[in-house]
Specification:
3-stranded antiparallel sheet; 119 residues; alpha+beta; 54% helix; single chain; extended
Length: 119
């Protein structure tokens, strides 16, 4: 009897993800070409290497960190991607400030005072 329950649970585990797909999803099929270029080595630091694939806007960074402690791997990642962080972080905060201005116009004054108390 217990083996029957086991197989029933296995069957449900397989079928549930298939049945839970949202059939009303209106997403588009990804028709982008698969990048088949050879990765180009950009930089090497202790515990990490950075490669680039593609050109211009379609460029993809491949960062491989390894060995040492999690701190060492994080430090290597930061060294390898430091230029992108320097460029991306100000853009991120500009976006956040613009969104905050829009939200402040929508939220009633009481809500704004509440937000300032917790920021």
């Amino acid at each position: 009897m217990s083996s029957t329950c086991f197989w029933f649970v296995c069957l449900l585990t397989i079928l549930y993800p298939i049945e839970s797909i949202d059939r009303s999803c209106s997403g588009k099929v990804n028709t982008n070409a698969i990048v088949r270029d050879e990765p180009r080595l950009v930089n090497i630091v202790p515990n990490g290497k950075r490669y680039v694939v593609g050109q211009g806007y379609d460029q993809i960074n491949i960062v491989h960190v390894y060995g040492g402690t999690p701190y060492d791997m994080g430090f290597a990642f930061g060294k390898l991607m430091s230029q992108e962080f320097k460029e991306g972080i100000p853009e991120f905060f500009d976006y956040i400030y613009k969104r905050a201005e829009i939200i402040m116009k929508i939220v009633p004054p009481v809500g704004v005072a509440f937000l300032y108390c917790y920021l």
